[in-house]
Amino acid sequence: MKSNAVALLNHIDRQMAQEVADNIDAELPKESLELKSDKNSPALSMANTISKPDTKSVAIILNGEPDIEQLTEWVKTLAQQNLNYSIVAKKVRDLNAALKVTDTFDMADSSLFDAALLISSVPKIETIDLEFIETTLQTFQTIGSIHQ
Question: Taking a C-beta distance cutoff of 8 angstroms, is the pair 68, 96 a contact?
């Protein structure tokens, strides 16, 4: 089973196959079967993708208790720009008649969003918020921060 996985990786990337083989104590195939190609496929490329706001989503991360009026203004601005958004916090709850925390950190992953906006009403940012922001940063997504 291990050798099958390494053999499959050997078709993709010889160095990766070597590292995996070393880590799982499997034998590396004698010859590299890695395919070298510089061909581009327009069907697989995102180079010509038209990026529109209505295809983008923003995670609004709440740290502490937000100023509801200011949060409402931010949400209105995002909606006017046709950006999708989800409000993320520790618990799903109503913030007012119009706004609701729709996602928790257990339900949402930063990879589901194109950007993150941290809204904090306290000086210390909680660990769970930081983890979400760090993952957003590691995947080169846009990050914004508002401290109320």
Answer: yes
User: Which amino acid appears at position 50 of this protein?
Assistant: I
Cα–Cα distance for residue pair 40/30, rounded to 1 Å:
29
Residue ranges per structural domain of the chain: 1-37, 54-147
Residues 57, 83: Cα–Cα separation, whole Å: 6
d(CA 22, CA 30): 14
CATH fold of the domain at 54-147: Rossmann fold (3.40.50)
Please name the helix (run of DSSP H) or strand (run of DSSP E) that holds residue 15, with its range, or none: helix 14-24
CA distance 10 to 34: 6
Q: Please give the Cα distance from 120 to 2 (Å, whole number).
A: 47
Task: Return the minimum-mean-pLDDT range out of 1-5, 55-59, 60-64.
Answer: 1-5
Give mean pLDDT, residues 73-78.
94
The DSSP call for residue 144 is E
Quickly count: other Cβ atoms within 10 Å of residue 58's Cβ: 22
For residue 35, the SS3 value is coil
